[in-house]
Amino acid sequence: MLQANKKAPNFDTVNQNNEPVRLKDFAGSNNVVLYFYPKDDTPGCTIEANQFSTLAAEFAKVNTVILGVSKDPCDSHQAFIDKYKLTIDLLADTDGKLCNDYGVWQEKEKNGVKKMGIVRSTFIINKAGKLADVEYGVAADGHAQAVLDKIKAL
Q1: How many CB atoms lie within 10 A of CB 145?
Q2: Where are the beta strands (DSSP E) in the chain?
Q3: For the chain, which domains are there?
Q4: Mean of all residue pLDDT scores within the chain
Q5: 90-112 tens-digit pLDDT
Q6: Active-site entry in 32, 33, 34, 45
Q7: Which of 49, 80, 85, 94 has minimal Cβ neighbours within 10 Å of its Cβ?
């Protein structure tokens, strides 16, 4: 698992519009909140995405971009955005490289059944490309506000 104060793993993937998004695009100008969630349009993921969207303007005031990541494809992300009028970009990690690089693809257990899946996690990457904060296993509700508060304290 990753730790704060280390260089953030680079990424180069696509958003819901199939447009390239790279970590280096934000270097020197914006902090990045990279949050990983299990699946589009599921209860916890919807709460988290809606709360990040509601606070997107507040994040922008502190030069911070919000990027959600799951293994869902671009068309699923676009449908999720359209359904809930989300105002954040969602990155498609269909090959799982980003999930592996950030250590969020882990064995999970539910009702006694073990399987691999995305552990809801958030990474704050500063303008210099370093991990300012790393949090694995977060709760969806209230998390966006907690992340905003952390960024304001940086």
Answers
A1: 14
A2: 12-15, 20-22, 31-36, 64-70, 89-92, 105-110, 113-118, 121-125, 131-136
A3: 29-153 (3.40.30.10)
A4: 96
A5: 999 999 999 999 999 999 888 88
A6: 45
A7: 85
Rounded to an integer, what is the distance from CA 73 to the centroid of its chain?
A: 15
Could you tell me if 41 and 80 are in contact, meaning their C-beta atoms sit under 8 angstroms apart? yes
Q: 128 is written with which tokens?
A: 């210099």
pLDDT digits 0-9 by tens, 55-67: 999 999 999 999 9
Which residues, at least 6 apart from 61, have a Cβ–Cβ distance to it below 8 Å?
A: none
> 23: which DSSP letter?
G
Per-residue pLDDT at 125:
97
Rounded average pLDDT over 33-61: 97
45 is catalytic: yes
